[in-house]
Amino acid sequence: MIKRIDTLLKLWAEDLHSDAGTEGSGGGNMIAMLMETKGELIRGTRGSRVLLDESADIELIVNKHLPPQLSVLVREHYCNHDSFLSQKYTHCGCSRETYYQRLHQAHECIASLLLGKRAA
User: Which of 46, 60, 67 is nearest to 114 (CA)?
Assistant: First the structure.
């Protein structure tokens, strides 16, 4: 694993894919958050440390640029907090060793795409 990418993905999942809400009853529901803030939505209200641009870039990379098996694995690993690790392997259809090899491949791919985006 690439530590920096691992950290970015954890923060991305927390920022964009977490059911844990901000203070109050809004939760992850956009309408509830708008009602709670009287129509004024400020991005990053969950205390995200990922820059909004990076978070959006990671979302785009995971959704559009990663091969499907890596995209599923990244979502399963970072966004699914309800399953045991063995259940995640099963969901991804691979062994523990293959799971971590693919996770590393995903990290390399994401790092390469983020670096390419900055260089452009």
Answer: 60
